[in-house]
Amino acid sequence: MMNIISIINNKGGVGKTTITQNLGVCMAKNGYKTAVIDFDAQANLSYSIKHTLNKDLGSLLLKKAPITIEDFSITEYKNLYILPNDKDINGALFGRMNPADQLFALKNILKDLNTFDFIFIDTAPNLDTPTFNALIASNHVVIPVEYDIFSAIGIAVLYDNINSAKQVNADLNVLGVITTKVHKGRKINNEMQAPLIKHFKEVVFNTSIRTNEKFKQAQAEQTDIFTFESSFSEKRGSEDMESFSKEVIERLKKSN
Q1: Do 9 and 122 meet the contact criterion of CB atoms below 8 Å apart?
Q2: Domain of 36: which CATH number?
Q3: Per-residue pLDDT for 114 more than 60?
Q4: Counting beta carbons within 10 angstroms of the beta carbon of residue 211, is it exposed (0 to 12), middle (13 to 18) or buried (19 or more)?
Q5: Pairing of strands 204-210, 173-182
Q6: Among 26, 70, 179, 226, who pairs with 208 as Cys (CB 3.0-4.6 Å)?
Q7: Which pTM value belongs to this model?
Q8: Residue 172: left (phi > 0), alpha (psi -120 to 50), or beta?
């Protein structure tokens, strides 16, 4: 079964692109045939992963035809492919479509695809038409969240929207909440951890992505955390992403 997983939060700066990129690389490194889709108009994922450009996601959505692996761009990683975008995944693009097609555009072009073990979709920090496209096309959602009050409020709103998407996509499942930018010595982290676990219980992954400037440094050099940290004695980011990927696989085995 092909797992299509959207990385979603309507709050910006929580690490959606970082997780999409490095989780994709990690799965590919572990032998899984993996694709990532850049569904954010900022197109940061398209920059972060070096690739040989093939087709732009926006043009494929407008074309409407089901896609194959041949439509994906090849990256420098074995087993990893990308559907990049040219900063055109926005309301204007969907406004050019028939209204009846707008929410199903991504699902329709992916419908005949069974090539990959994983597809990870990076989304914008908005609960708009592109984000609903991702929800309707996916069978799982991962929610990155920081330990702060605004993230906690945002999750409640996000869950309402996920439940709305479930009215159209009954297969949609919240795979889990992953805490990011965690610094266990900070008071706010300790204060927010208890209520987050209380309200979302087993949905919260055991792994946390710790605060680590190397993630940004790696993206600036258009590389992944595993490659970037390979020359450092401390490999905090690599350890966190590897641990997270194992939890993702374990949860998928239970849910499939």
Answers
A1: no
A2: 3.40.50.300
A3: yes
A4: middle
A5: parallel
A6: 179
A7: 0.93
A8: beta
